[in-house]
UniProtKB/TrEMBL annotation:
It comes from the Archaea. GO terms for cellular component: protein-DNA complex. The keyword Ribosomal protein does not apply. GO terms for molecular function: alkylated DNA binding; DNA-3-methyladenine glycosylase activity; DNA-7-methylguanine glycosylase activity. Residues 131-296 form the HhH-GPD domain. Keywords: DNA damage, DNA repair. InterPro entries: AlkA_N_sf, Alkylbase_DNA_Glycosylase/TA, DNA_glycosylase, HhH-GPD_domain, HhH_base_excis_C. This is HhH-GPD domain-containing protein.
Length: 300
């Protein structure tokens, strides 16, 4: 496919793209295959089909961004910004590893360059956090795929569909019954619709980014269907608040129990108390422990 525009950017090292999307596959509409990530981004109301091809290596990562429709320079800059956000480019893993210290260097060396992916927009991130409630990642990704394919818009380029995430307008207009046809449970359908309606009423999720983490947490938990776990996850994947940690998460509790406490399960309080030493990087370091546990220790 011949792109309308192509630009190569440097990414913050270290970054292992394969490990990143192997550890947690990207949620639809993002698709990662053959070292490429593709989806459509909505910029100024326009769907822009975008493909990101990864180059270089873990310590010198680069990405070629190709767009397959006419875009202005301003729109292209916004696409680049969304791509960098999606790839968690702001997160400085060198500082994360320094905070982990020698006590966990064996984990950072094994998972060198791993980053958690983020949602390109706060709205998408909160909806994903709702979808992830109380089910496995695999089940949640299946639900999100169904939602995007049934409700999201797409652009087709030479037979390849580039989907975008559903808009608040589209989700707010749907009946609960139609949302349930996208595999959402009754409660999750209600929560998705309620959030979408709040956005249409004037809730500016981008303005929330100016709030302190505590203030942002309070706003999130005031929304229908968003409790402690969902808010803490949304703080990470929707708002890049690295100090957030979903300490109630069962997988994280098992990882801490196995790696740190040498027992079958840790309490949420034990997780939260121990992680305080990591300060502003609690979330990413807990993610490293979780992925290490899932990859190497879960079936022991």
């Amino acid at each position: 496919m011949k792109p309308y525009k192509s630009i190569e950017i440097k990414l913050r090292p270290p970054f292992n793209i394969s490990l990143t999307f192997e550890a947690t596959p990207p949620a639809y509409p993002s698709i990662f295959e053959d070292n490429c990530l593709y989806r459509a981004f909505r910029v100024e109301g326009k769907l822009i089909p975008t493909m990101i091809t990864f180059k270089g290596n873990v310590d010198h990562p680069r990405a070629e961004i190709k767009v397959f429709d006419e875009v202005s320079e301003r729109q292209l800059r916004e696409v680049i910004s969304l791509v960098k956000r999606h790839l968690c480019d702001d997160l400085d893993l060198k500082e994360v590893y320094k905070t982990m210290g020698e006590g966990f260097s064996w984990i950072s060396k094994e998972l060198y360059g791993l980053k958690p992916w983020l949602a390109p927009t706060p709205f998408e991130g909160i909806i994903l956090s709702i979808a992830f409630q109380q089910i496995s990642i695999k089940a949640a990704l299946s639900i999100i795929k169904s939602l995007v394919e049934q409700v999201g818009d797409y652009v087709e380029v030479e037979g390849l569909r580039f989907y975008s995430f559903p808009t608040p307008e589209k989700l707010a207009s749907m009946s609960i019954e139609d949302l349930r046809k996208c595999k959402l449970s009754l409660n999750k359908a209600r929560y998705v619709k309620a959030l979408s309606q709040e956005v249409l009423k004037g809730l500016s999720l981008y303005k929330l980014e100016t709030l302190s983490t505590r203030e942002l947490y309070d706003v999130l938990t005031s929304l229908k269907g968003i409790g402690k776990w969902t808010a803490e996850l949304a703080l990470l994947i929707a708002f890049k608040r690295w100090e957030s940690l979903p300490s109630d998460d069962l997988g994280i509790r098992k990882a801490f129990a196995k790696i740190i406490f040498n027992k079958p399960i840790a309490s949420a309080q034990e997780v939260a108390t121990y992680a305080e030493r990591w300060g502003m990087y609690k979330g990413p370091i807990a993610y490293y422990l979780l992925i290490y546990y899932e990859k190497f220790l879960r079936h022991q």
